[in-house]
Fold these 2 entries.
Entry 1:
Amino acid sequence: MTSGVRSQKPEVRSQESGVRRKPILYSVFCILYPVSCILSLIILLLSLGCSKKPPSVLKRQQMLMGTIVEITAISSEEERANLAITAGFKEIRRLEEMMSTYIDESEISKVNREAGVEGVKVDQELFDVVKTSLKVSENTGGGFNIAVGPAIKLWDIGGEEHLPAENELEKIKPVIGYKEISLDEDGRKLFLKKTGMGIDLGGIAKGYAADRAEEIIKRLGIKDGIIAVAGDLKVFGKRPDKKPWKVGIKHPRKEGAILAEIELSDEAISTSGDYERYFIKDGVRYHHILDPVTLQPARECQSVTIIAKSGIMADAYATGIFVMGPEKGMELIERLPDIEGVIVDKDGKVHISSGLKGKVRIVGES
Ligand code: ADP
Ligand code: MG
């Protein structure tokens, strides 16, 4: 660039030096040269403008992790957006194959099979997700507990609508302690100390998967979008009109209705609700979030929505705080610096954390 500018100057001067000899030609050149420069600049700018299409919204869905995953990508290059979305789905499938207890060959299934026998060396990612789970368990007073595996199997919500007998639940209570999950950092091994124990990552893996998919999609050049793994969303960048994304919180009791709206960019939002997977028997709702103490569905909330920086945190705390109930749960939200939330309690009353006041718009009160 600089050398080009320099080389032009002597040329102009040499034209200047020929002024008196060819006055007419010179004056025509003097007028035409800048005009042609400006014209070519305008043409260049116009052609640049033409090649850059306005950004469009590309949205695709796939069944993964036992639910519908929807990825939205904003880009002016459709092919790039398509490739990125495909890579996002692939990443979520990779994590499902590692963390699902429904897949016999998954690493977590191997860990569960070796319960009471020996530790199993696992991928660093799985090790870290379990480690984070244990931290969230501590912070939620055991409300979040990935050792609920045997109880989840017994209830089989979404499968047969069967009520486990109290003695069946009593029998498995001794193997529900998350403190019996041992982490061997050096060997990167997970060991479930008691026979019959089982880890279930259903309350945290979807949020984690949304984080990883976002990372991949961004790496492939997409700056704005949403990863929605059912009720676990990771939102990044802005909408095509450059405004923050508007996310709706489902009404827990009116199907298809929105309870509240919130504007987000570069945040995760997760909702745990008793309306996602449930059955009703003799007028009682039995759903998929279990109180690790009673091994019955947690009864204090209809839904808990958590907003956090990462999907893993939003997902795990939504589940754990659902179990804690509205009072203790809101206390915890206020105590944790990076977490905000909206809790709908068992009576349908909406509780909003102080950091969200004025940011959440209630559109359909319970
Ligand atoms: P969803 O699966 O609808 O996104 P959650 O994130 O709340 O909802 O996860 C619920 C799942 O978490 C259950 O299906 C089960 O696999 C697991 N789970 C249930 N109760 C607990 C609990 N107390 N702690 C941790 N995980 C749980
Ligand atoms: Mg969760």
Entry 2:
Amino acid sequence: MLDQLKDQPADKILSLMAAFRADPREGKIDLGVGVYKDAEGRTPVMRAVRAAEKRIWDEETTKTYTALAGDPAFADALVPLVLGPSVPRANVAAVATPGGTGAVRQGFELIRMMRPEATVWVPEPTWPNHLSILKHLGMTVKGYRYFDGSTLAVDAEGMLADLQGVTSGDAVLLHGCCHNPTGADPEPATWSRLADLLREKGALPFIDLAYLGFGDSLELDAAATRMIAGGGECLIAVSCSKNFGIYRERAGLLMAVARDEATAKLAQVNLAYLNRQNYSFPPDHGARVVSTVLGDADLRADWEAELEEIRAGMLGLRESLAAELRRLTNSDRFDFLTRHKGMFSRLGATPEQVEAMRRDHGIYMVGDSRINVAGLNARTVPVLAKAMVEAGL
Ligand code: LMR
């Protein structure tokens, strides 16, 4: 029977990791998968995470099951971090999931349970795995304009015009901050027009929040999510992989913001049911690290400080890349790099130019010309800038 299976396309982002490893060149540069790296190219365990792990090791007395929704302390720590005072806690259902991807998957499944015929609107472009999961689930998908390839910024009017086509009961996927793959986020005024439009249409916003704290600050990066959640029902998929640096621990949370407490309870039962069908209990270790860090004033302050160092470092790399390109080209046409937020920027290169940079300079980026800014350092910024210019950008 196994021979009845069809071959599956390789994940474009993950297969880059293998291609990079196989490249024997000394000076190769990995700007592929979205993993934070410091100036030495390491992905460190954050200080507060290490301290929390020590504490858990000392204090944990059992490894028995928690609850289907995960340890409640995790949601109780993460919901206020994301939502602030925008929604009463009792109106929020939440389950721990295996990473942000698990939350995205459970969110799509919840939409399918509520309304199997719902159309899920996705930004063009979006994280390719969104599309892959939706296809796997057999859900109806429609794209809406998001990114203007000429300005390398959000196409606000195009987005709002396309979303006029949304009908009541559709779901609209949004990136809460630090859009992946482009780095282009809507302006606050655009967010508020978008929130009004979706409310008017009776659509369900589904916010993917994987890079909280990587854009402007923990508070500012949560602002759009809070505005939407404050206005009515929505789903939010939160990842702790990047901002806590606990990628392999798979710590994510799916929240369902309801209009009232009774509906939140109903959503909670359904989310726990979904966890049970898919994997029973979600992983606990990463979630416990997060609730330990957020629940201790000192650890939390240290985590926030280190997150800010990481954010400032990426911003500095953006600025030095833009400055180097300004110097080389005598123009400011690459200044969009400093307006993009978070870990990624789409450079606007053609697939041929992306290939040329890989072939001639050993620079690896996703085929749509998305770079992971954190993959750069002071030595490699000029190398990338030179490669971009040589490739004819
Ligand atoms: C990325 O977009 O590079 C990250 O979200 C990692 C992944 O799983 O694709």
